[in-house]
Amino acid sequence: MQVGDNFVLNVLAEENYKPLMKHFLKRFPPGGDRFAGIKTYPANNNCPILAEALAYIECEVVSRMDCGDHWVIYSLVHSGRVADVNALTAVHHRKLGNHY
Predict the structure, then answer these.
(1) Which of 49, 63, 78, 94 is at 20 to 30 A from 7, Cα to Cα?
(2) How many other C-beta atoms are found inside a 10 Å radius of the C-beta of residue 91?
(3) pLDDT tens digits, residue range 16-64?
(4) Domain boundaries, the chain
(5) What is the pTM of this model?
């Protein structure tokens, strides 16, 4: 993610996040389509919105900060939508700090 890049942050619902989480945690070949077999539709910024997402946020990378073994990405939100205001968002807790 570089300054000026666009992305969509998809928020998953508590009751159905595990299949999508497992799909995106698996290894993909270089250049492989991570969204193959996943129902999506394009956001205004042409990034994929997951059809099963509870909500989504369209963002643009404004800056990034090197924090050693990861980057902190600061982004500007351009748009978004919540599909169901009564649903609970998924929260995934890692068992260990270095393994999902």
Answers:
(1) 94
(2) 8
(3) 888 888 888 888 889 888 888 899 999 999 999 999 899 999 999 999 9
(4) 6-82
(5) 0.79
